[in-house]
């Protein structure tokens, strides 16, 4: 029943979307917590998410998670479906294709681009987009030089460039930076390396498109107060880190991730000066991003009190929830009475 309702609501919202010529442009970022398929990927340590593995991952759990994530998209869409979705912790193109074409999203025509990283566990980053509101011009993956610096391989960065319905160009960089590995110094150096690589890509885009509309988002595995922001990312001229607020004003939700009773925001949006100033045809609808704090995404924290994300697994124990992260939402607004915020770009394959 939930699946049928989800499809019907999303199709209705899609009709509302097509009927509007001037509207907000919504971007969803979501770490979906280990969206693995049921097959072993050669060269990757994905054994715990096989039917015979520690998690006892099977078809029922897989499709339940796929349709649960589609429910999140429906809820985040409110009156319209998201135009872009950045998903972290997807295993491969199989799970992304199933999400677009075989889950409750299948009637909506999402297309996708994703990385094919050398990450040890096979984890990738994917971007789903509505071709009617974002016409893809180019995409590229950028490898973090992890092994060259003595670290295990991590997730690639994903760069997209596309046309909005206004004719303006939007640049998007999606990332999932290395985890903290229990706070070791090596983990910190690895995250700094990844952040430095990300900053270099941002600088490259903004040098070629100084008035460009750039959005950077993903799971940074770091809070805004940590050094990778102050010393790496915030050194990029004109790049602004947006603050976050709970979408529905729940003051008990103060981040996208909760560990041992403490909330932290590990997922972020950064935008270029053109979007930050909102003086062009495309700008920010609000000066903040919103944490999707829907009640169905939360559960009681029996150990520490309060609420925490309703996740799929807690260690080896299957909970049947959504993710250990909460989604993050950014709204842009497209106007028809302002000058364009960036020049046209020709299709290609490499990052400018």
List keywords for this structure.
disordered C terminus, 6 helices, 8-stranded mixed β-sheet, 6-stranded mixed β-sheet, alpha+beta, 352 residues, globular
Count every helix, treating DSSP H or I runs of 4 or more residues as helices.
6
Unreliable runs, pLDDT <50, ≥5 residues? 1-5, 7-21, 342-352
**Percent of sequence in beta strands:** 25-35%
Cα shape = globular
Structural class, by secondary structure, is alpha+beta
Order of helices and strands: HEHEHEEEEEHEHEEEEEHEEEEEEE
> How large is the radius of gyration?
19 Å
Give the integer mean of the pLDDT values. Answer: 88
Fold topology:
Blueprint: H1 2-19, E1 24-35, H2 59-77, E2 84-90, H3 93-101, E3 111-114, E4 124-129, E5 134-142, E6 157-164, E7 169-176, H4 185-208, E8 213-219, H5 227-232, E9 240-241, E10 244-246, E11 257-259, E12 262-264, E13 267-271, H6 273-277, E14 282-284, E15 289-291, E16 298-300, E17 307-309, E18 313-314, E19 317-318, E20 328-334
Parallel strand pairs: 1-2, 7-8, 10-15
Antiparallel strand pairs: 1-20, 2-4, 3-4, 5-6, 6-7, 8-13, 9-13, 11-12, 14-20, 15-20, 16-17, 18-19
Helix pairs in contact: 1-2
């Amino acid at each position: 029943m939930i699946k049928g309702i989800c499809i019907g609501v999303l199709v209705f919202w899609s009709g509302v979307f097509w009927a509007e010529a001037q509207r907000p442009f919504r971007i969803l970022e979501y770490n979906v917590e280990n969206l693995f398929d049921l097959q072993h990927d050669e060269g990757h340590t994905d054994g715990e998410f096989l039917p015979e593995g520690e998690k006892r991952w099977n078809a029922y759990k897989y499709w339940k998670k796929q349709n649960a994530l589609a429910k999140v998209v429906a809820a985040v869409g409110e009156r319209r479906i998201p135009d872009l979705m950045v998903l972290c912790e997807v295993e491969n193109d199989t799970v992304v294709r199933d999400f677009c074409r075989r889950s409750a999203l299948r009637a909506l025509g999402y297309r996708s681009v994703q990385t094919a990283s050398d990450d040890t566990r096979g984890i990738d980053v994917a971007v789903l987009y509505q071709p009617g509101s974002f016409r893809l011009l180019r995409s590229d993956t950028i490898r973090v030089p992890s092994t060259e610096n003595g670290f295990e391989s991590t997730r690639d960065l994903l760069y997209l460039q596309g046309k909005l319905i206004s004719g303006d160009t939007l640049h998007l960089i999606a990332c999932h930076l290395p985890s903290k590995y229990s706070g070791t110094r090596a983990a910190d150096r690895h995250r700094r390396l990844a952040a430095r690589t990300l900053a270099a890509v941002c600088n490259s885009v903004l040098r070629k498109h100084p008035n460009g509309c750039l959005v950077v988002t993903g799971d940074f595995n770091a809070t805004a107060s940590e050094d990778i922001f102050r010393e790496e990312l915030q050194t990029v001229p004109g790049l602004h880190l947006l603050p976050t607020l709970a979408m529905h004003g729940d003051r008990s939700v103060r981040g996208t991730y909760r560990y041992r009773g403490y909330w932290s925001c590990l997922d972020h949006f950064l935008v270029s000066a053109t979007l930050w100033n909102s003086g062009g045809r495309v700008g920010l609808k609000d000066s903040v991003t919103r944490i999707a704090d829907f009640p169905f995404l939360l559960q009681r924290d029996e150990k520490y009190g309060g609420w925490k994300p309703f996740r799929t697994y807690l260690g080896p124990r299957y909970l049947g929830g959504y993710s250990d992260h909460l989604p993050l939402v950014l709204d842009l607004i497209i106007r028809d009475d302002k000058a364009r915020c960036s020049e046209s770009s020709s299709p290609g394959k490499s990052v400018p």
